[in-house]
Fold:
Amino acid sequence: MQIYSWNVAGIRACEKKGLYDWYLKARGDILCFQETKAMVEQLSDQLVNPKNHDAQYVSAKKKGYSGVATWVKKGINHKHTIGLGIEEFDDEARTLITEFDDFILFNCYFPNGQRDHARVPYKLNYSRAIAKRALELKKKKKKPVIITGDYNTAHHPIDLANPKTNKKSTGFLEIEREWMDEFQEQGFTDIFRHFTPQENGHYTWWTYRGDCRERNIGWRIDYFWTTDDLVKKIKSCKHHTDVLGSDHCPISLKL
Structure:
């Protein structure tokens, strides 16, 4: 089974840049999109009813903001739960939880802490609420959990091109990185780093400014983390840096 995750930075804009053609070629069993920035009624028929998948969208109350979507291949047994049941997070459409026969998948768009750090507390509260719910479901359903999406945080200095100059930037603040340490201590594994422990130069987001993508001056902020009990079932975790259409690239997990 192949799962993809991609912050599309506006699914309608990404569609114009070849999203649907990529989808047909990628042949993923499950596709998780973040920052869709659209209501279902604003989307083309091919995005609402993709050829081989059932699509579930979650839209924010504020138009053109946030939002996630999960596409599941027709015939795969699944059940969606929209949101966490916590209004301050669900109003921004950041979470879609899908239960499958053998695992539970969280598709998450973690908040950006903002340049002035005003939303860092909100971001950390959301992050802890996600981990808490994941562990509750793991225990209740007796199934491993995958949490994918745009985490908006680079965990270690090897996860961004310029760690020294970004120590005071949201996405690499000590308090944000400490949450990822805490997450790991609770029994979650960063799957890309499981397969690629020490190499730097692996990024998933690049600013549009100054040819940063061409020069590979980026950040690794999109992840697959899983509960430790699933690690042995995972074959690979990859970044698809050649796929354009957003300032992020898609990432994939093979089970």
Remarks:
- The helical segments are 11-16, 19-26, 45-48, 87-90, 120-141, 174-185, 191-195.
- Residues 95 and 140 are 19 Å apart (CA to CA).
